[in-house]
Please model this.
Amino acid sequence: MAITVKRSHPLFFGEVDGVDLTRPVTPDLFAEIDAAFNEHAILLFRGQAMSDAQQVEFSKLFGPVFTATKYHWAKQERRLRAEMADISNIDHDGRLLAEDDERRFHNRANQLWHTDNTFKHVPARCSLLSAREIPSAGGDTEFADMRAAYDALPETRKREIGDLIVEHSIFYSRTKMGFAGYTDGARTELPPVQQVLVRRHPATGRNALYIASHASHIIGWPVEKGRQLIEELLAFATQPQFVHRHRWREGDLIVWDNRCTMHRATPYDEMGERRVLHRTTVSDEINSVERVRGQRHSAA
Ligand code: OGA
Ligand code: MN
Model:
């Protein structure tokens, strides 16, 4: 074993020691990392002074990396290459964003519990977030273990929700934050999509709740009734026993499994201090509803 993993939380979140991700990751080493990732759902690597190119290369070992959606940031000049999501409060000249800059609204929406890209037909498998500059206080990220949350549900609830399908839309979560300034192009590019409510993890076989701020309603249910169920499950899954809070240090790289965890940003003095993180997002293979239908089909 080249790596050692120490759990930071009783349920999930492993801190990995003994890896320098700025050096080539061999297939054997990646197999160890991947096994740890499946077990702990989230991995933290400290002290990784990675370039964007190195981050993209490492991310690709997990699967195909998403590139920026065309219309999402159409009005601004990008600070980073197309594979990097810019989780920062600075512009391409390195200045703090203006108070009314749209990018501030987008980043603020990260303060709602979510998992990345559930609003895309093929959602995200995992995300890799690299800390480049961290404010002196605040700006922690919280994570929730959705496998443990599912396991803790009463059996009647598990039976009731097992086959439900949820509609997700980025416009739903952004509207919750009071932001509605999307172009028609964005709306065409990111139509609402469907995802299962309970996901079985392909590597571990464990079930997890699959919800997010983008989860709008349950297909086939009255909208309000579906919303109530989603809100209830969000509240249940983010109880303190399922949550780990990470205090960032520069050089931290965290990989989280979007199929079985949620996360949210926490506030900091965003008009006074810089917070700069770079995210790569790895795509899943297939839409979660299509995956289940395909499995049922091949089992029949
Ligand atoms: C993200 C995200 C949270 C944070 O990068 O996907 O939600 O704390 N970030 O910045
Ligand atoms: Mn996110």
Remarks:
- The two ends are 41 Å apart (CA to CA).
- DSSP finds nine helices and 15 strands in the chain.
- The chain has one domain: 4-299.
- The chain has a mean pLDDT of 94.
